[in-house]
Design a protein that fits this description.
The longest helix has 38 residues. Strand 4, helix 5 and strand 5 form a beta-alpha-beta unit. The protein is globular. It is of the alpha/beta class. It is 45% helix and 8% strand.
Length: 289
Amino acid sequence: MAIRVAVWGPGSMGVIALRGVIDHPELELVDLVVHRDVKAGRDAGELCGANPVGVVATTDAAGLLDGDADVVVYAAAANLRPLEAVNDMVSILRAGKNVVSCSVVPLVYPNAVDGAFTDPLREAALAGGVSFFTTGIDSGFANDVLPLALSGVARTIQSIRVTEMFNYATYPDATAVYDILGFGKPPEEVPFAATPGVFTFGWGPVLHQLADGPRGSRRRHQGDRQARSGAHLVRHPNRAHRRRNNRSDEVHSDRVRRGPSDPHRRPRQPHARRHRARLAAAPHLDPAT
């Protein structure tokens, strides 16, 4: 049975997600919400360059909330309206629908985001019995998940450096290029992205994720080691059994301690008795005969 999916916001990112939903054999597009009247009334396939699919875009989100979608891909622009976007997603979660999003960038690592953004989402997800997941390429993969994965091949880590280079000449979001980043503006005009705190809000959680990743791995490793040690103790609850193990450990330690310094001690020969038994049973195998 196909998973029923709705898409909210087929903009520069959402249109890619819309085409992905349409092309996926295990997903079924059931609703499409747009913010611009020029897109309303058009078939979803037409908006993303696919064949018509019979789902008509609408500006009315109530139909999506009352519909039968299992999952909603929320991709509406949120750079200038993060709290409004969070409220949209809260309404989806309370309607009992899972949410996958790329809109509010810092939510790729909720542990480093202010509770004003995360608490309503967490409460709504619990109330609706559903899940919420934010992902993307930047952030969500290239500058956080990928560096953490690559760090797994290093024995020690002194620092992690991530450099982003991007050609905004081909970026399909005019608001982001001109209004947020300030391309084409007079030099004296301060763009929104240069406002104090903006980059800390947007990309600060990425740094926290990179810092917490190796620490979390060490904590899990230590926890696994402690769990294995605890399992060993539980596996031998019998006191006499433990005493026998302790005696054997003492004997083994004593052998290791005095073996190299004893000139009369013959080297230990594992399986020598078994080898002699085989020769007695089959004399023709003895190389001395």
